[in-house]
């Protein structure tokens, strides 16, 4: 019951800030629509490993960026802000453990991610003729592991940052290099050899490239899935040990 109330409060705070919902919904959907409406996006292209750009790059890009924005910027900033304002300290002195607030924050962010992923998949299908993920098992497994890995990194950022502004800055500093090195700005097939391998061992790049594979019908590479599991475990354990409620 208390977790339900906390989740409802955190959801209201999330929706009350116009920047958060606009960013979470607007950026991925805009990426899908703007690039998806370009001509020939449904035809195979050598630039995208012989796959059509829409299912082979654009749609997975929208999903991966959505999860990364929530996990690396919004979630850690919210948790660090609660610590900065003394909310976690007050909860620690009450019958409600601060971990309930952490769980509520995770539920709100995961709920937002689920809604927008469905919007991308279903809306893309209806508006753009986007093919559904051809390997649904690999797609769901990637979503789960990618979400765990990226939110574990975000939890570590929240654990180390002293203020909400610091958490947002650190998360952004982590987010953009992952975009550059993960095959997101430039398709992995067009990266030099060393960077091509690096794209599969960064959590955002591994998530994105595994989504690309599963959306076009192949199972994600073992290296990508192992990378996500390792990041989820290591960052989650470290964050749990160093996280400060005050």
TrEMBL record:
<feature type="transmembrane region" description="Helical">
    <location>
        <begin position="139"/>
        <end position="160"/>
    </location>
</feature>
<dbReference type="InterPro" id="IPR013525">
    <property type="entry name" value="ABC2_TM"/>
</dbReference>
<keyword id="KW-0812">Transmembrane</keyword>
<dbReference type="InterPro" id="IPR047817">
    <property type="entry name" value="ABC2_TM_bact-type"/>
</dbReference>
<dbReference type="InterPro" id="IPR000412">
    <property type="entry name" value="ABC_2_transport"/>
</dbReference>
<keyword id="KW-1003">Cell membrane</keyword>
<feature type="transmembrane region" description="Helical">
    <location>
        <begin position="221"/>
        <end position="243"/>
    </location>
</feature>
<keyword id="KW-0046">Antibiotic resistance</keyword>
<keyword id="KW-0813">Transport</keyword>
<keyword id="KW-0472">Membrane</keyword>
<keyword id="KW-1133">Transmembrane helix</keyword>
<dbReference type="GO" id="GO:0043190">
    <property type="term" value="C:ATP-binding cassette (ABC) transporter complex"/>
</dbReference>
<dbReference type="GO" id="GO:0046677">
    <property type="term" value="P:response to antibiotic"/>
</dbReference>
<feature type="transmembrane region" description="Helical">
    <location>
        <begin position="20"/>
        <end position="38"/>
    </location>
</feature>
<protein>
    <recommendedName>
        <fullName>Transport permease protein</fullName>
    </recommendedName>
</protein>
<feature type="transmembrane region" description="Helical">
    <location>
        <begin position="167"/>
        <end position="186"/>
    </location>
</feature>
<feature type="domain" description="ABC transmembrane type-2">
    <location>
        <begin position="19"/>
        <end position="246"/>
    </location>
</feature>
<dbReference type="GO" id="GO:0140359">
    <property type="term" value="F:ABC-type transporter activity"/>
</dbReference>
<feature type="transmembrane region" description="Helical">
    <location>
        <begin position="58"/>
        <end position="80"/>
    </location>
</feature>
<dbReference type="Pfam" id="PF01061">
    <property type="entry name" value="ABC2_membrane"/>
</dbReference>
<dbReference type="InterPro" id="IPR052902">
    <property type="entry name" value="ABC-2_transporter"/>
</dbReference>
<comment type="similarity">
    <text>Belongs to the ABC-2 integral membrane protein family.</text>
</comment>
<feature type="transmembrane region" description="Helical">
    <location>
        <begin position="101"/>
        <end position="127"/>
    </location>
</feature>
